Amino acid sequence: MIEVKNLSHSFRVGKKGTEKEIPVLKNVTFNIKQGEIATIVGRSGSGKSTLLNLISGYISPTEGELIIHENNVTNFNEKEWAKFRLSHFGFIFQSFQLIPSLTTFENVELPLTLKGVPSPERKKQVMDLLQNVGLHEHASHYPNELSGGQQQRVSIARALITKPSIILADEPTGSLDTETELEILDLIRSLNLEKGITFCIITHDDEVAKISNHQFHLQDGVLSKGGAFVEV
Ligand SMILES: Nc1ncnc2c1ncn2[C@@H]1O[C@H](COP(=O)(O)OP(=O)(O)OP(=O)(O)O)[C@@H](O)[C@H]1O
What we know:
Blueprint: E1 2-13, E2 20-32, E3 37-42, H1 48-55, E4 63-68, E5 71-72, H2 78-88, E6 89-93, H3 104-115, H4 119-132, H5 148-160, E7 166-170, H6 178-195, E8 198-202, H7 206-210, E9 214-219, E10 222-226
Helix pairs in contact: 3-4, 3-5, 5-6
Bound molecules: adenosine-5'-triphosphate.
Adenosine-5'-triphosphate is lined by residues 11, 13, 22, 24, 42, 44-50.
Domain ABC transporter: 2-232
Pfam families: ABC_tran
GO molecular function: ATP binding
């Protein structure tokens, strides 16, 4: 469960001595229950990425509280956040962010290597997951030898390999054509149903919003509409 309570964030901009506080998120409150898909929608500049960066601990709120799985993470330091992210979060990005010099297998394996999982166990887990996302035959391909949809599958596998309870996604289908987008949305939906993973997805796109249980609308940093539960 992600509990966002009266969260506000301001950026300080300008030269030292003449800095200004720019309020970007204002008193935002909502909950996302475990196993739900939530989308955050809103115009460019409405504060969506700032909200995702707060939920993932890359920036700290100016006011308010953030509680994730009953842990009050609001005042976590960087070390606490790093540990928390590795145990609970997976990330998916619009531009995939795969490492070009690593194969499909090695990109997905990397988080396990960082966690110190022994090689035979890594191999088994990576191959099982590549099978799961339909990429086992592409294990030795490099990112530039894959289509956009296949690259996004690799990045989804990489996000899943540490068995996170929550996946945070920033425009995960933003650079895909419509047909590929629908395939990736099917994959997200089935991972949500089969593994009970919570998804929190930033999007501009109605197709993505259609697979979500909750839609949160941000307008100039304020939650203008938020989240009646929808069965999908
Ligand atoms: N590091 C920063 N310093 C100062 N202002 C910032 C910073 N990051 C974002 N902003 C401002 O905060 C506001 C919200 O930005 P944010 O990136 O959260 O919007 P967004 O809804 O994700 O937009 P988009 O859909 O274009 O990605 C914008 O006015 C932006 O200029």
